[in-house]
Design a protein that fits this description.
- The structure is a single chain.
- The chain is α/β, with parallel strands linked by helices and about 325 residues long.
- The protein has a single domain, classed as Metallo-dependent phosphatases (Purple Acid Phosphatase, chain A, domain 2, 4-Layer Sandwich), CATH 3.60.21.
- The chain has a 7-stranded mixed β-sheet, covered by helices on one side. The protein has a 6-stranded mixed β-sheet with strand order 3-2-1-11-12-13.
- A hairpin with a 5-residue loop joins strand 4 and strand 5.
- The protein is globular and about 45 Å long.
- The N and C termini lie far apart (about 60 Å).
Length: about 325
């Protein structure tokens, strides 16, 4: 009996390793991902430890074991349906620490705020950085640069998009912090940050889409008017967001910016396509971003560890 149990245990471990390697090989396109600069992006993930949220978290942890994961970016709605009340809110455990508990996910997390985070105490999400070592939200919007290798660097820019959207100012009872922020100041900061950047890569993260084919939210008029021109003028290559609970890759005809929606960190809604759509799907997943010497790849990884979509962009 012990011999049979031992054989079954070995078989189980072998199947788990196969499942993990499929995720690793697919996302890396069978290249040496461990030597690349890798990070994850998730959005709309804060569903209070729901089964779907945990499925995504568990696969993130499996994938992270087989790569050199530098950090995780969240594109907002870190808490659904309401944001936290304080740094001591029980949601920090229910929604974050008890879900993303695996050692492989104990890397730095760089969040931005979503509209549901604004139904709560937004300053508490910033202040939590002083309590939790891996939560690295230094301000409402912020930036840093990282070296990819000896000759290539990347600028990472994190936006606070709810104050840029007019509709939230019509309901300040629901979004009490919305009037505290100066949206014009943020846009000026974005302009200066992009214009001063000397890095070869400029990646921008926010909650609201610039372009989205989703029938639920879709394009964000204010983002098109205020943010899109700056991305184009100063050479940003990719804009990551959530808000719509689907997966999308969009690009304007003859456009220079790739737009990625990665909003299925814990919930899915029906997807759709339009004239700018390159890819669209509605399935629980996260984004696996990998820098190499000559370019960048972005893969959508589902909860089975399968790479369901991947695109690459070469450095110029």
């Amino acid at each position: 009996m012990k011999r049979i149990l031992y054989i079954f245990t070995l078989l189980f471990l072998f199947l788990q390793m196969c499942r993990c390697s499929k995720c690793f090989d697919g996302a890396s396109n069978r290249n040496d991902t461990k030597n690349a600069f890798n990070f994850f992006v998730i959005s709309d993930w804060g569903w209070n430890g729901s089964p779907d949220q945990r499925k995504v978290a568990d696969q993130m942890a499996i994938t992270a074991r087989y790569i050199n994961l530098r950090f995780i970016v969240t594109c907002g709605d870190n808490f659904q349906l309401n944001g936290v009340t304080s740094v001591h809110d029980s949601l920090w455990f229910i929604n974050y620490k008890n879900v993303y508990w695996q050692k492989s996910l104990h890397v730095d997390w760089y969040p931005v705020l979503g509209n549901h985070d604004y139904i709560g105490n937004t300053q508490a999400e910033i202040d939590y950085s002083r309590i939790c070592r891996r939560w690295k939200m230094e301000n409402y919007y912020y930036t840093f640069a990282r070296r990819i290798n000896d000759s290539v660097s990347a600028r990472f820019i994190f936006l606070d998009t709810p104050p840029l959207v007019d509709a939230y100012y019509l309901d300040t009872a629901t979004y009490p912090d919305i009037e505290k922020l100066d949206s014009a100041k943020e846009i000026q900061w974005l302009k200066e940050t992009l214009s001063r950047s000397t890095e070869q890569w400029k990646l921008v993260f926010g909650h609201h889409p610039i372009f989205s084919a989703s029938p639920y939210h879709g394009n964000t008029k204010e983002m098109i008017e205020k943010v899109k021109p700056l991305l184009e003028k100063f050479g940003a290559q990719i804009y990551f967001c959530g808000h719509d609970h689907d997966l999308q890759h969009l690009k304007e005809k003859n456009g220079k910016v790739d737009y990625l929606v990665t909003g299925t960190g814990g919930n899915c809604r029906r997807d759709s396509t339009d004239e700018q759509s390159i890819y669209s799907n509605s399935v629980l997943a996260f984004s696996f971003v990998s820098f190499k010497a000559d370019g960048i790849s972005v893969a959508f990884i589902n909860t089975s560890g399968q790479e369901i979509y991947r695109f690459t962009r070469k450095i110029k």
